[in-house]
Amino acid sequence: MAVKKTGLPDYGVARLKRDVSSGGVTSLYVFWGEEAYLREHYLGELVRALADGDESSVRVLVGKACTPQALSDAVLSCPFLSRRTLVIVRDVDVLSPDAALAAVLPGILGSLPAETCLVFVCGEAEPGGGKPNKKILDAVLDRGKTVCFNRPSPADMGRWVRRRFAALGKDCPPAESERLASLCGGLMYAAIPEIEKVAAYCAGPAVTRADVDAVVAPVPEAVIFDLTDAVAARDVRRAEALLDVLARQKLRREEAVAQLGAAMRRLYAARLTLDSGRSKQDYMVAFGVRSPYAADIHLRQACAFSAARLRRAAALCAREEQRGFYGRLNDRVELDALLFELCGDGRG
Q1: Contacts of 246 (CB under 8 A, 6+ apart)
Q2: Class of the CATH-defined domain 13-148
Q3: Which architecture, in CATH terms, is 220-343?
Q4: Which range, of 6-20, 30-44, 66-80, 158-172, averages the lowest pLDDT?
Q5: Are 260 and 227 in contact (CB under 8 A)?
Q6: Region 11-31: what's the mean pLDDT?
Q7: For the segment 259-287, what is each residue's pLDDT rounded down to a tens digit?
Q8: Residues 313/346, Cβ–Cβ less than 8 Å
């Protein structure tokens, strides 16, 4: 398990699953990543495996409630009617805590009792913020396992969507499962309610494209991905339809322009990465892209543009963002004009 130059080592969800099923759970874990559904799922698995589902052997500390004394008391508490005590700490950056916690955390992590499992549950971003406490980092790497819950690959996500539909008594063909997954941004937690809505709406035994499109509310990220594809194809009509979707989602003009501008800048970076012969990992590290799922989409979409066209598109979006600081005639008219320019050939 090699440590990356710019991040924590990822122990891997598959290996964590083996630990839980085989009884090989260690004393310390750090969870982070954008797939919240998987984070919470494996927390539940740890509760079942270590505390036999009994909440009396589970201690939960959230944010400022995780004081040095509270954490010490929790990790030293004896399990009650279970094999081990599970301590879950939320909303605390284990690698960059406040001064009081930072002073005692290396000692606590270095002397965890064998009957205790301590889990730090962080958010989407990798803990440490780029400036981790070295003593704490050394203790985490020495005693613990760090697990990043990324979005699943499109293939894995499609299979998972089909299994969820099967549990609800519906058959979902691969094309429809991929469509639903893309509209939900490839995130399981966003897909679960949409799967339930589609299954309730679907009249027949099999889910159709019409069922998915009629019920699923796409996340803004997915709309921006589709909008970028429309711009690449110079399809103004499709781009306008997607702009209508963003409007129905109550996305303000400033937010729409900012997201479109960010997308164009990412694609420009991806195009430069491709032109220089570098890899996806190089792109993710150099430009701070955490999600392999998103990186795959960026690199795919960048292939449809030239570097010159993306440079011009990024400049157009930056100009439009600057206009937001001054008086405007009509938000939608200006967004329409921006789309016509992005879809045009740059000759007026």
Answers
A1: 220, 223, 227, 256
A2: alpha beta
A3: Up-down Bundle (1.20)
A4: 6-20
A5: yes
A6: 92
A7: 899 999 999 999 999 999 999 989 988 88
A8: no
What CATH class is the domain 154-215?
mainly alpha
What would the pLDDT profile of 219-250 be if each residue is shown by its tens digit? Answer: 888 888 889 999 999 998 998 888 888 888 77
Find the Cα–Cα–Cα–Cα dihedral 157, 160, 166, 170, rounded to 10°. -20
Q: Which residues pair with 206 in a beta bridge?
A: 171
Bridge partner residues of 29 (DSSP): 119, 145
| CA atoms of 285 and 310, how far apart (whole Å) | 21
Those residues with Cβ within 8 angstroms of residue 76's Cβ, 6 or more apart along the chain or in another chain: 113, 116
Nearest CA-CA partner of 124 in 157, 150, 144, 87: 150
Tell me the domain boundaries of the chain: 13-148, 154-215, 220-343
Using one digit for the tens of pLDDT, what is the confidence trace for 51-81?
876 677 899 999 999 999 999 999 998 877 7
Closest by Cα among 217, 232, 24, 244 to 117: 24
Q: Which of 130, 93, 96, 94 is nearest to 5 (CA)?
A: 130
Question: What are the helix (H) ranges across the chain?
Answer: 13-22, 36-51, 68-76, 99-110, 134-143, 154-167, 174-183, 188-201, 209-215, 220-232, 236-248, 253-275, 280-287, 292-302, 307-323, 331-343
Q: Are 146 and 58 in contact (CB under 8 A)?
A: no
Are 317 and 257 within 8 A, CB to CB? yes
Give Cβ neighbours of residue 41 (< 8 Å, ≥ 6 apart).
none
Over residues 97-106, the mean pLDDT reads 93
